[in-house]
Amino acid sequence: MTGYGTAAAMASLIALAAPVAARAQDAAPLPADQRIAIHGQATFVGQATPGFRDPYDGPNSLTPDQAKETVDVTAYVGASPWHGAELWANPEIDQGFGLSNTLGAAGFPSAEAYKVGKSAPYLRLQRLFFRQTIDLGGAREAVASVANQLGGSRTSDRIVLTLGKFSVGDVFDTNALAHDPRADFLNWSAVDAGSFDYAADAWGYSYGVAAEWYRGAWTWRLGAFDLSKVPNGETLETGFGQYQIDAEVEHRHTLNGRPGAVRLTLWRNRGRFSSFADALALAAATGEAPDPSLTRRPRTRVGASVNGEQAVSDTLGLFARAGIADGSIEPYDFTDIDRTVQAGGVLAGKGWGRPGDRIGLAAIVNGISAEHRRYLAAGGLGVLVGDGQLPHPGAEAIGEGWYAVGLGTHATVTLDYQLIVDPGYNRDRGPVSVVALRAHYGI
User: Fold this and answer.
1) Tell me, what's the pLDDT at 231?
2) Which residues are CB-contacts of 213 (< 8 A; sequence separation ≥ 6)?
């Protein structure tokens, strides 16, 4: 479900991880505006789970004793037709499968695993978008040349317009420490607020438009995106036939001289959704398992989340998120979470003589509404979960820890461990240990 590693998040990460270096850069001459850039990345993730308690199976159950792998190779090709304008294309080759074909846990353990798995490599154009930055004044600041961002300079006050095919997560709910499964946390509900049912195809991208207004320490964002034609689908709507509206306000600050940020994100989905009550009522009348495709009609689903990050020292950063969504209506494009909370931190290895290494730790708790629990207990299936029954429901709790070894400037190898308690909100299943090896190279 990758759609992360955005220019804004990467720039923020540099500021959090090395504030002294960032301040030194402020005094350096500003770079010339870049006209053309080509970047690339390749990521391999191998993930496995040993045996665990598995008393019964449903169509969306996570199964024990399995190992899967995913590979993606991406090119980031950008050009500037005029001042402040950027046109980017991201062709990508993908291959592989998530555990249980990316099913079995609402907080799925690999955001590098798509909802569409294939054994043979295939090519897709994941992003094709235009961005225009309009300077409004204020201090002029350097802009690093990274994937999907041309190098140069801009003013602190500005308007940024983005149009085309990209990820909602490129603009909204970003976090410098927990937003990129190629570089930090792997779990779906760590890289975004798990309750953020953001518009996307099965790979995590959408057609849309977003506007950002940067003014001093504040940023206001507004966006509109196409939902998929059917829940969790491979094909997107066109012309906003089913759509999402996103709004966000961000405040940047310093605490004890260290940078931090807080964001409040609101979203509204409008499309053909089913309520859990309608699906259960029809199932009771027919004697069949609930099928939400039979009770979908035009509805609105809303949600909100808050997201913060804070540098504590030159090497330690902390983050947290919390979110809630309307639990009476089925989730549509992300995952089966109605409320979520997460907290964690990332520590750079300078203190033990390995400045290129990092350690990350996070704890996550995901939950669903009472109607949602009744739907799963009656045999209903969600986006990712559904064990066919749910006699003993519980909150899904996840712990993730990783150690990334820096190999020069461009490569990292990461060992990752996750413990998922009550996967799919099922106290009869697990707990599940998931181990992973990630190798990443980016230029």
Assistant:
1) 85
2) 158, 159, 219, 220, 221
* Fold that domain 7-442 belongs to in CATH: Porin (2.40.160)
Q: How far apart are the first and last CA of the chain?
A: 21
Domain residue limits, the chain: 7-442
pLDDT reported for residue 40: 97
The pLDDT, as a whole number, for residue 76 is 98
Give me the amino acid identity at 163: L
3-state secondary structure 273-307: ECEHHHHHHHHHHHCCCCCHHHCCEEEEEEEEEEE
pTM of this prediction?
A: 0.91
pLDDT at 131: 98
Round to whole Å and give the CA distance between 379 and 173.
33
Q: Is the dihedral of CA 170, 174, 179, 183 positive or negative?
A: positive
Could you give phi then psi for residue 257, rounded to 5 degrees?
A: 80, 5
* Residues 6 or more apart in contact with residue 404 via CB below 8 angstroms: 183, 357, 358, 359, 360, 412, 413, 414
- Average pLDDT per run of 10 along the chain, which is 443 residues long? 47 44 56 93 97 94 96 97 96 96 96 90 97 96 94 96 97 96 96 96 95 97 95 87 96 95 98 96 94 96 98 96 97 95 96 94 98 96 95 97 95 98 96 98 95
Residues 131 and 83: their CA atoms lie apart, in Å, by 11
The sign of the torsion formed by the CA atoms of 43, 17, 19, 169 equals: positive
* Beta-carbon contacts of residue 345 (< 8 Å; ≥ 6 apart): 177, 312, 316, 317, 318, 319, 360, 361, 362
